[in-house]
């Protein structure tokens, strides 16, 4: 069995910083590991990650597809099963915000058909899909 001594443990968690420009013996003297001349040898001579030496960068060459709707950020989708869990007679947008169903910054919401609703609910001022409206009316409620 190999004996371990306390001086064999690596207790240093952080590597020492390279000491640049401290003479030929250090291995990083004179040019300090930057080579001779050129853009990368200069102070502040670094380009951003996508720079390709003046060639059109890949990120700009590739065709763009898709679309991110800004309305989607402020619009919430509510399932009918979530509405079924609420113990209230009338559901409005203000009520949904107060009860914590909508996140901060959400201005619009729409109720979608998903599951069933058995309790009688009156939905007022919240857009609702056709399937969800049929389900609410079949449960004895109404949607305006």
Can you tell me about this structure?
It is a single chain. The chain is an alpha/beta fold. Helix content is 17%, strand content 11%. It has helices at 58-61, 80-85, 93-98, 130-138; strands at 75-79, 90-91, 108-112, 122-123, 142-143. The protein has a three-stranded parallel beta sheet with strand order 2-4-5. Strand 4, helix 4 (130-138) and strand 5 form a beta-alpha-beta unit. It is elongated and about 90 Å long. The chain starts with 57 loop residues before the first helix and ends with a strand.
Essential attributes:
11% strand; 3-stranded parallel beta sheet; 144 residues; alpha/beta
Question: Topology, pairings included?
Answer:
Blueprint: H1 58-61, E1 75-79, H2 80-85, E2 90-91, H3 93-98, E3 108-112, E4 122-123, H4 130-138, E5 142-143
Parallel strand pairs: 1-3, 2-4, 4-5
Structure described in brief:
With 144 residues, the chain is α/β, with parallel strands linked by helices. The chain has 4 helices and 5 strands.
- Which stretches are poorly predicted, pLDDT < 50 over at least 5 residues? none
* Helical segment count: 4
- Strand pairing plus helix content: what structural class? alpha/beta
Described by its quaternary structure, the protein is: single chain
Overall spatial form: elongated
How large a portion of the residues is in β-strands, by DSSP E? 5-15%
Rounded to an integer in angstroms, the radius of gyration calculated over CA atoms is 32 Å
Q: Cα distance, first to last residue? A: 81 Å
Report the strand count.
5
Mean pLDDT across all amino acids: 88
Largest sheet: 3 strands, parallel
Strand order of the largest sheet: 2-4-5
The run of helices and strands is HEHEHEEHE
Residue share in helix: 10-25%
């Amino acid at each position: 069995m190999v004996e371990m001594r306390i001086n064999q443990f690596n207790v240093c968690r952080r590597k020492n910083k390279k000491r640049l420009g401290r003479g030929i013996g250090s291995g990083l003297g004179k040019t300090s590991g930057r080579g001779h001349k050129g853009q990368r040898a200069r102070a502040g001579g670094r380009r951003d990650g996508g720079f390709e030496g003046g060639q059109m960068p890949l990120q700009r060459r590739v065709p763009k597809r898709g679309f991110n709707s800004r309305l989607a950020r402020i619009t919430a989708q509510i399932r009918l099963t979530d509405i079924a869990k609420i113990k209230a007679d009338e559901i409005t947008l203000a009520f949904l915000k107060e009860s914590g169903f909508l996140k901060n910054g959400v201005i619009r919401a729409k109720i979608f058909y998903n599951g069933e609703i058995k309790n009688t609910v009156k939905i007022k001022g919240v857009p609702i899909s056709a399937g969800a409206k049929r389900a609410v009316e079949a449960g004895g409620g109404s949607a305006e």
